[in-house]
Amino acid sequence: RLSCIRNNIWLACCGVLSSGLAVLSGFGLMLFCGVPFVVTVANAPFLILGVGVDDMFIMIASWEQSLRKKEKSNVKSLLAETYAEAALSVTITTLTDVLAFFIGTWTAFPSVRSFCLYTGTAFVFCYVYTMTFFGAVLVLNHKREQGNRHWLTCMRVDVGKDEAENSCLYNACCIGSCSRQPSQPEGEHPMSIFFKKYYGPFVTNKWVKLLMVLLYGAYLGGSIYGCTQIREGIDLRNLASDDSYVIPYYDDDEKYFSTYGPRVMVVITESVEYWNESVRLGIESCAQSLE
């Protein structure tokens, strides 16, 4: 928001910080337990950040709705109403994510097992920090707004002061508009207005609903066809950059040597008297049999 009081930049930063704390806690616990850290685990923080920021937006939206419904209520009832609205959604999404990754630990691939353990544990911590740390930050941010304090410096700012005497930059950064005053009621967010007044009526139109069904049918048919075209295995060419020497190597290997199959090697693990002619003949006979 443009108001220096209602601006919630620090609230958003704390939501991202909550995801970072979840990554540190989850990874720290797994390292303490001796779970091996593989390269693929380095991708997990991006998943945690995505889910953590999503939970943050759900919490903020529920908090704003609680403020509009119970503007004169105390902080405890506001936070209780927020958790009643948001906790169920956050819990279900986190539970499904945790189950999905912990089921992945049954795989026979050690790297995938480590990735699922690290990510699933981090999701658990992400849920804990969202329900505790971020809820506390919501309350602190609310108290800052109630005290008409600046979003950056937390210093009290003037509200309702004559803005004609000051420059535009000063009015934008140092003059607040207290949205909790009866003369200035808190309005809905523009995105909420868009989905309520425009998008909702549009998608509930009978012709749009028919179009949605047709599009979903086409999507479902294309998905089923795509599933029939999936091949098992992985093409190592897809793991290298387009200008890598690996790509022509695998092209030539498939073109000239694919008919011979994989290279087979035989190792003799015991001490052998190679100077003994009968032993050498036995080895040659064994090699011929293998060929």
From TrEMBL:
Its main location: membrane. PROSITE patterns: SSD. InterPro entries: Patched_domain-protein, PTHD_SSD, SSD. Pfam families: Patched. Gene3D superfamilies: Multidrug efflux transporter AcrB transmembrane domain. Residues 1-140 form the SSD domain. Keywords: Glycoprotein, Membrane, Transmembrane, Transmembrane helix. It is a multi-pass membrane protein. It is found in: Membrane. GO terms for cellular component: membrane. The chain crosses the membrane at residues 9-38, 44-63, 83-109, 115-140, 207-226. Belongs to the patched family. This is PTHD3 protein. The gene is Ptchd3_0.
